[in-house]
Amino acid sequence: MKITTIKENGVEIAVVSSSELIITDVQSSLDFIATVNYEVGCERIILNKSAICEDFFNLKTRLAGEILQKFINYHTKIAIVGDFSVYTSKSLKDFIYESNKGKDIFFLSNEKEAVDKLSIV
User: Fold this and answer.
1) Sheet harboring 105-108: ordered strands across?
2) Fewer beta carbons within 10 Å, N or C terminal of the chain?
């Protein structure tokens, strides 16, 4: 896992890239939040979709809700970046749509969009 930081609009954002799965369950998401916060002190994170297990995107597993609740509890905003058009589930599309209307969790197609969303003060 490689962590770099971007400062936009006076806001520090951690950009995390990894070729391996980082988030596979609730505990790994807590470890991830703690690691990013410890290493770079950021509470706003951009993470590539490929670093999250596929079960996350199957809402029937309830994994997405449990994991994202941890981000909310620890006041950490996250933008997950990738191609979400590969999923056909209407409930997942609705979940993504509703998340993107909020202020804490985003599902976006590229890093530029993620920086724009996360740098709003």
Assistant:
1) 2-8, 11-17, 44-48, 77-81, 105-108
2) C
User: Taking Cα atoms as reference points, which of 60, 65, 63, 71 lies closest to residue 103?
Assistant: 71
Of 117, 67, 58, which Cα lies nearest the Cα of 92? 58
5-52 pLDDT, tens digit per residue, is 999 999 999 999 999 999 999 999 999 999 999 999 999 999 999 999
Max Cα distance, the chain (Å) = 38
Query: In 3D, which of 121, 92, 95, 109 has the Cα closest to residue 46?
Result: 109
Query: Mind listing the pLDDT tens digit for each residue in 66-100?
Result: 999 999 999 999 999 999 999 999 999 999 999 99
